Amino acid sequence: MLPGEFKSVAVLGAGKIGLAFVKQLLQNSSLRVYATGRRSETLKSAEALGAVALRDNNLAVRESDLVVIAVKPFHFPQLLSEVKAENWEGKIVVSLMAGVKLETLRVALPGAQVFRAMPNLNTYVGSSSTAVAENGYDEASRGVEEFLKIFGKVYWVPEEYLDIWTGLAGSGPAFIAEIADAMALGAVAAGMPRELSYEAVLDVLEGTARLLRSKLYLHPGQLRDAVTTPAGTTIRGLMVLESGGVKAVLMRMVEEASKRSREIGEEINTKILEKVKQK
Ligand SMILES: NC(=O)c1ccc[n+]([C@@H]2O[C@H](COP(=O)([O-])OP(=O)(O)OC[C@H]3O[C@@H](n4cnc5c(N)ncnc54)[C@H](OP(=O)(O)O)[C@@H]3O)[C@@H](O)[C@H]2O)c1
Fold it and tell me: Domain range spanning residue 224?
């Protein structure tokens, strides 16, 4: 299917990331959006955004050109049992599930052109950093890229990077939120009100990302040195940071999160393939 030819999208699993997709699609595209869930609260939330909310995954898949799978990986076997195999035929399917490999998706979704993507919750404001695994499709890839750009930036990467991407950019908003919270609390400890402290941290985060992207400083270390006056305030703070081993902690944070994504993959792919055999 050529870019721009999609008419309808199904988001299977209107949870946190699923609803963020639904919201952006309804605000920034003319696509008809189906969203599924099992609980009435899930369906109500999707309906409130303007989606056609359905309990029936089979119907949602049948009615759509492009299908986004946004259930947890361990809920995928159940979802598979709900959709008739022939309904995947000819569909473009974008899986957001951590750890579920392309080769597993190809076996599980016969006749579909499958894509594996890893966005993050910044999708909600159209600022996702989404990685998509390279898979050799041509026309469909262009369409999927155009589709994913509705939610933010898109990077094609070898599939082997997706677990690392999950630990860095997928989990990233949670990590950055913790760091922002800690810095704001530091300002509260020093005597400034919470709300003002928090606003200042958010400004610093946004501004620093823009400054680093401007390439005025080629490396984060150069920016650090530019702010660090001898015997000044920044070097005092940096001494505390270094004495806490924070840099090593943050490096391990991303490495461990990536490892966990790989572990989930090891646990779930076999289970999914067993389920497909039973079908
Ligand atoms: N959250 C993130 O930041 C993020 C980022 C990138 C990728 N992902 C991936 O996206 C997926 C969803 O993550 P999430 O954080 O959005 O989880 P979540 O909030 O738990 O959402 C999953 C949704 O799936 C629905 N669901 C479960 N089984 C279903 C079924 N058989 N049919 C229809 N709906 C079903 C659940 O709704 P009911 O309770 O109503 O069934 C739930 O709302 C995961 O695979 C995750 O790896 C998440």
Answer: 172-256
Q: Is the pLDDT confidence value at 3 over 70?
A: no
Residues 112 and 53 in one domain: yes
**Mean pLDDT across the chain:** 95
CA of 18 to the centre of ligand 1 (A): 7
Q: Whose CA is nearest to atom 41 of ligand 1?
A: 38
Cα(122) to ligand 1 centroid in Å equals 16
Q: Are residues 38 and 143 in the same domain?
A: yes
Question: Is there a single domain that holds both residue 242 and residue 148?
Answer: no
Contact (Cβ atoms closer than 8 angstroms) between residue 206 and residue 122: no
Instruction: Give how many domains the chain has, as a whole number.
Output: 2
Q: What is the pLDDT of residues 243-278, one digit of tens each?
A: 999 999 999 999 999 999 999 999 899 989 988 888
Percent over 90 (pLDDT), the chain: 92
Q: 238 C-alpha vs ligand 1 centroid, how far in Å?
A: 39
Strand order, beta sheet including 113-118 = 52-54, 32-36, 8-12, 66-69, 92-95, 113-118, 128-133, 152-157
Contacts of 271 (CB under 8 A, 6+ apart): 74, 77
13 lines ligand 1 (CB under 6 A): yes
19 within a domain of the structure (yes/no): yes
Q: For position 1, what pLDDT does the model report?
A: 58
Are residues 70 and 155 both part of a single domain? Answer: yes
Split at pLDDT 50, 70, 90, the class of 6 is confident
Instruction: Give a yes or no: residue 166 inside a domain.
Output: no
Does residue 275 lie in a domain region?
A: no
For residue 173, give the ligand 1 atom closest to its CA: 3
